Amino acid sequence: MPRFGTFLLACLALIGLYLVTWPVPVDPVAWQAPEDQGLTGVFAANDALAAAKTIDLGAHEGPEDVAVGHDDALYATMSSGAVLRIDQDTGNASEFARAGGRPLGIESTPDGSLVVANAYLGIQRISPLGEVNNLLNAVDGEQLAYADDLAVASDGIIYFSDASTKFGALAWQGSYEASLLDILEHGGHGRVIAFDPGSGDARVIVEGLNFANGVAISADGRFLLIAETGSYRILRHWLLGPDAGTTEVIVDNLPGFPDNINSGAEGRFWVGLVAPRDAKLDGLSDKPFLRKVVQRLPAFLRPAAVPSSHVIAINGDGDVLTSLQDPAASFPAMTGACETSQRLYLTRLFGHELPYVEKASLSR
Hints:
Elements: H1 2-21, E1 53-56, E2 65-68, E3 74-77, E4 82-86, E5 93-98, E6 103-108, E7 114-118, E8 122-126, E9 132-136, E10 138-139, E11 142-143, E12 147-152, E13 158-162, H2 175-185, E14 190-195, E15 202-209, E16 212-217, E17 223-228, E18 233-238, E19 247-251, E20 256-263, E21 269-276, H3 279-283, H4 288-296, E22 310-314, E23 320-325, E24 334-339, E25 343-348, E26 353-358, H5 359-362
Antiparallel strand pairs: 1-26, 2-3, 3-4, 4-5, 6-7, 7-8, 8-9, 10-11, 12-13, 13-14, 14-15, 16-17, 17-18, 18-19, 20-21, 21-22, 22-23, 24-25, 25-26
């Protein structure tokens, strides 16, 4: 028995030493997470998305973002590196282009082509014939680590997020895996870049963000909206007018992690809340040492995205116009929404279907 006790103490000492000293990639920064108000007020629980229908995407998985092309078809970015073309009338989905890597944000451009933020490869253009060209993979000599979402201005300027300059999607074996590291560290490694494909000029316009994610531009081109996932908030960055070049918080203390932002009708912007807040992670926000210990735990014990189906619409001033949910989380990890005249298509990190709801059903 004494030998067993000695052995047990030695094992516990080794475990303790491991939890305190083992090298980990994160160097957490102390901050104070705002108190989570949960699904209250304008975010009160509802089942508006419970009746969502689906489009079968076959073997392809993870329609992370969707754009409407000039031919009125949908174009979806998939985890396989494919971009699918989806006929809205028939639901038929077929591979339109092979972008490679992990394409995330996608938008159509005035000339009929598509632009893609590829987490592994940078910014890409896809011609109306499906030909893929890499436009940008470095800024100021530094490789893009995690191109995430983008918006295209009427003059052709592409505004896009580089989610984390430290935790690159390719380097850390996936966009989801890299996001967990960046959010746990909270080190301000995210940025937004303005890129002119005509001149090749690319410049950082916002930096120091905690996982820079969704980007959308106002219809008049006066401002950008930016999702700062790790801080649970939406920012507005002014491009024109007396406040040009400044950035302000317009939505704070969201009940979940904001992901993509897409422009909708009548001045709406759709934001996906990819997962609800994690009380344990919030409680550790001002305890960087313990967050480092957490990273040393087995993966199944670390914070991870809890299944949720939740999208919201806001206006350019940050007023929440609607909050749509499915308590059963039938389609979890919802990244955002693409609004057409008749439907709201719901994008997601995982799964082989593209969910959608008829807008008419939402107004009842």
